Structures
1.
Amino acid sequence: MIRDEYDIFEPIGPMPVVVDWGPGNTCNFSCNYCSPNVHDGSQPWHSADDSIRFINFLWDELCKKDEKHLVFNFHGGEPTLWPELDKVCTHIKSLSSKNIIRLITNGTRGTQWWIDRKHLFDAAIVSIHHGQSNKEKISEKFNIVQTNGIVISLHVMMDIYNFDECVDTYNYLYEHNLNCEVKFKPLRYKIDSFDLQSYSDEQRNILNKLPSGRHVVKKMINLPMKWCTKDRNKQLDIYNLEKQVVLPGENNWKDWYCNIGIETVVVGYQGNIRPGSLCFNNIKFGHISDAEYSLPFKPVKCTYTGCYCMADLQTTKRKYLEPGEEFIDASIPDQPYKITTRD
């Protein structure tokens, strides 16, 4: 097993501060592999005032002193439905032109909507869902959006129950969207679960043979990863996490120490500030409506047997800590609790 040969899994190059943010759980889709609480609109959208106050905290506390920039992944729900999206993104860009904003979206907004916001959005991950996305229209729209300066990554959701159609969509987009990144996404039975759909050996073989490797990126948003040892005498670069880590089952860092909450900060659709996107939903650092914030900025000892969310995957993981280094031992997965130094 590759991970047993190394003791560090980390990005290649310096990390920005990544903010994975779901400003609400309203969506105009209701995919069968998406849990209702992720799309049913049961939570109100985050206010612009709360959002901007928390963004200013991150900028002042994490970026200024270390000369880092912020990378935002806005998702949902469907983030393009957020009424405050333009206002919040305008503020992010006012702090620094180096700050990057990426939307994780189903891509249903019209072409002109995207063009009108090309000064706000640097990139978009467009999820292509079988039965709810027309591959020809998606292809045409995002070829135009890409030429207007927004980096587009088309992610085809590989639904096990409509597998052949998903493969056909993937191949079509790969052939017709030469300036866009095209990737496949292995699906879990539910978006907030840790169990991959039961792909057959034949289906896994097909996924591994799909054309890939075309990277048309103007701004480095997703850093490639590397397995390495502490003395750096041995390392193996990882450029395709789906094929090289997730499908082979190398995405298990149980009992390792993960820098979620340090390199990445998560704001859930309920407004809770958390360390991980998919994992450790039970840990709460605070809420964006708080008047003040105080995050612990300590690594978390992993208790899971799989890591699937891209923001979580692209975060440093270490088998060992430095002597005396503190960490969060999140060993109570079923009982929500708060970790903060704020009164």
Note: The chain has one domain: 15-219+260-296.
2.
Amino acid sequence: MENQNNNNLSELDQLKAQYETLKERFEQQEIINDRLLKSSIKSSTDYYTRFRRRQLILYPLFVVIGLLFIKWYQDANLSLMLFWITWLSVCFVVELWTTKRIQSKALENNDLLTLSNQARSFKKLSSVYIVQYPIPALILILGFLLSVMGYGLNAGSLIILIGAVFALFVGVAIAEYRYKTKHCDDIIRQIEASAPDTVKKTKLDKKQKWFIAAMIIVFLSLDIWAYMITASFLNLPRPWFGTRVEYVRTPDNFSTENKLEIWETEADTVAISSAMMGEKPLVQKVEVFRPHIYTGSDSLYLIVHLTPEASKLWYQFTSAAAGHHAALYLDGVQIQDWLVKCGIENGTFFIMKEWSSKEEQEKFCERLIRQ
């Protein structure tokens, strides 16, 4: 009986030893798994540290490149330069603040819930930022394209142009959002897989909500600033300042005063005139964006649409004169001069002129439509 008890005790001791060995192995495995998890999560959090360092180099580079381009292409336009610096500065501050929200300190303190919430908050802040920040650039790019392609685009072409640029920006914004939040998705997925109790819908705190409100206000101000640059410097319409009026030649009117001429100033030769077309009319339609009230020094632009025959001459002339200056004369007086950049196929050109009164502007457009 005593031997039997001794054997049972021996087996029990062996079982206890095996249990302790198994427990020790499990603990070691948990430590290894925990280390692997932290190492994997840390590589994702470290990405945003590297991202901030990279932006410290890229943003000053973008500022310098943009200023050099503006100086070369827009004759060092001060308003555009200030806008470029302000826009990039705002973007830099927002990206720096949002990425700094993801801190590896929470991982070091084993606070996975906080780290998961930080990743979710970053995704929300990034979505608001990525929707806001490209709009000022979109306005400037559309203005630039309109200034290059001419202001006489019909409604269909204008819709296609805006749609193409908008689609490009949306595609880039989606790709950027996925790229920036990819590491956040990795953090959230790994934390939820290892600790399901951390799954939680994160709400933005008061500080983050105020930051979003300030960001929206700042970017809306930049949107207005960008539009004012395109409206004033690129001579685009400012619809809240007035209305559009058209002067159209009747289809059966073939008369012309033969007073309008376009010269290539370098060659000092007439490029287009009704005399070159056998006394046929040059102008088909004139559009003007008229203010509600004239202040006496209103500088408004007119879009002049040529007849189909004159449009062919206009395209030939602008193609040959690309890179040179041209001037428009009425009654031998220079009305407008341009730098011809490329061949213009839509048969249009613009005139920028100051008007002291509505009557003066109306008489000028009536003279144009008779050319």
Note: The chain has two domains: 2-236, 242-369.
3.
Amino acid sequence: MKLPPMALTAPSLCPRCDAPAIMTDHCIQCALPLRQCGSCQGTAGPFDRFCGFCGYELVQGTRRAPLWRLWLLAALIPLAAGIAFGVSPWAQPVTHRVATLVGSPPQPTPVPGTVTPLRSDTLAFTATFPKDWTANDYSNQMPYVVVVHFPPDAGKVSDARGDLLQAKSQSAVVEMGRPLVNAPGVSASDPQAVLATEVTPLLGTPPAGLKFEVVQAVRTLTVNGRPAAEVILKLTRDTGVFYVERVYISSTTVGQPPLFKVEAVVPAPDWDKGDQQRVEDMVRSIKFTG
């Protein structure tokens, strides 16, 4: 019969033949498979459930140090710090800044010298347009300034009385002005509501010979700190495929309509070659002088 150990040291003998069995997988004398206690590192037999010296349950594996649970506390520290910062007075400016960056990502500024300044005292606004394009102020006949890439297209817009969808232009045409909005049932000063009201019939019952598809649905944006709304459509007609971008900007200029309109019609090849960005640059450059 085996006697219990005589000192407070872990057993290191083979449970079958008492041969020394320190740090071995098998007894060197009787070849009995051996196990090591995960608590006291003593030797146990292959079928022992508990260590014969310290009573540790062998199936639990190596005993962890008491400090191992501190990882949970370490993980809670940044969470608690984030909650504390979120309810602090310093959180509001940071939150506002992040929301601004996410909602309106920074846009590249046109390089000076590549654009031409535009000013209309009648319509009370300033803007810039590409240097190789041409601006035509028709504010004495209709509430628009027309910017074209191909000069003869300006006459087509004038003949169509400012209706870019009917003016069969050959190049990019951009119209900026202050028309009187006729949108029954919605506020005439709400850019998004007015734009949605105008786009719905274009998609449902378009004018004869025209077909529209939505490229970018009506969305809100900010132009120089003013609320605005924008939509981009694909127009197919007998002269080809065009992109139509329409933007309404809220305006508080005294003596002027409450909304400022920008509409561009651009041939698909020119749109893909960079005219889309040129139109966006013109929209972002608009400032009201009244």
Note: The chain has three domains: 1-63, 66-103, 115-288.
